[in-house]
Amino acid sequence: MTDRDTPETTDSAAARAFSAHDHEACAGEVLARAEAVSAARGARLTPVRRRALEILLEAHRAMGAYEVLDRLSAEGFGKQPPVAYRALDFLVEQGLAHRIARLNAFTACVHPGEAHSAAFLICRACHAVAEAEADPVRVALEAAAGAVGFQVERATVEALGLCPSCREAAAA
Amino acid sequence: MTDRDTPETTDSAAARAFSAHDHEACAGEVLARAEAVSAARGARLTPVRRRALEILLEAHRAMGAYEVLDRLSAEGFGKQPPVAYRALDFLVEQGLAHRIARLNAFTACVHPGEAHSAAFLICRACHAVAEAEADPVRVALEAAAGAVGFQVERATVEALGLCPSCREAAAA
DNA sequence: CCTCGCACGTTATAGAATAACATATCTTGA
DNA sequence: TCAAGATATGTTATTCTATAACGTGCGAGG
């Protein structure tokens, strides 16, 4: 079941999240796409919002709203909670970021624009968060729901466990 | 996909949660099993803990910790947050209740003792919460995780949407 | 009996989120 | 171009959620 040694083949985004890679390039690419997506929809990616997204992308992990707020206020933006919450809520609405319920935290979406159901893989050791493709999961969930007449609108799928690196470290 | 008119056949617990039924009998049955489970493990289902579980069972929906606390304190138990959190945490640890991350709330487990992966179906209209069988969902999730070398330990699967009754009401 | 562990209760504080209001900026159509 | 409405940003204050730290009582085992 935990059939390892199939790293790059299946879900490149999730695999990348758990391995060394060029954060800056990866962040830049996503940011460019985020701008395109926003423009296409007429949504305004203002300075605070854009900066909030950059902060999430740079961190490449889930961040609490107050953590983002600290960074924003240090850069001259507002110092009060709504500043961060509004920016983050905007990003989530636009599909540029996701909220991780289990952590009361937020993370940048790694493939904005593309329709997708995401599942989050949260490492309990190093706290990295990967966004995995979850279409089959969503299908299974909708089947279970449909069986009792429930109509799924939004799904929250989060797994807590060990990422490949931490797993190796633990085994050693 | 949303193939209705299959109410009692598939997942009786989840189906029951969304239809009229004898709450008292259903709660009594679950409570009896909870006691058996606790006894079998040597876990102490003390008065506060037992009462907290009863409160969840009677409500038959997700309740916030402070809501449970209000009821407990009205009945002579402690009035401070840790009283409720400790009781609820115990219930969750013992598998007698679940925490719904999305709602910051708790709900009684409808089949304690049996090993199961649960998915929660949360009605955004009436706020009912059903616990559905989620083994296939879990399998799909583990497949997605395994593909990137991630080892799932605990999974949070929650769907927000419309329950059968509210869906009918909305359609009318 | 006595003491060690667990449960219960308290006070105090930390952390997450939003309500309500004032000000500024952007857009748009007259 | 300018006024009006919508959108964004910022503030203060408050609410909701959760935990840390400490003292007390009780029950089981030496």
Provide structural commentary.
With 172 residues, the first copy, chain A, is an alpha+beta fold. The first copy, chain A, has a single domain (12-171), classed as Winged helix-like DNA-binding domain superfamily/Winged helix DNA-binding domain (Arc Repressor Mutant, subunit A), CATH 1.10.10.10. Chain A contains seven helices and five strands. Chain A has helices at residues 12-17, 23-41, 47-59, 65-74, 81-93, 135-146, 164-171, and strands at 97-100, 105-108, 118-123, 129-133, 151-162. In chain A, the strands form two sheets. In chain A, strands 4-3-5 form a three-stranded mixed beta sheet. The first copy, chain A, has a two-stranded antiparallel sheet with strand order 1-2. In chain A, β3 (118-123) and β4 form a beta hairpin. In chain A, α2 packs antiparallel against α3 and α3 crosses α4. The longest helix of chain A is centred in the N-terminal third of the chain and has 19 residues, at 23-41. Chain A is globular, with a radius of gyration of 17 Å. Chain A starts with 11 loop residues before the first helix and ends with a helix. Residues 1-11 of chain A have low confidence and may be disordered. At the A-B interface, β3, β4, α6 and β5 of A face β3, β4, α6 and β5 of B. β5 of chain A pairs antiparallel with β5 of chain B, so a sheet runs across the interface. Chain A binds a DNA duplex (30 and 30 nucleotides) through α5.
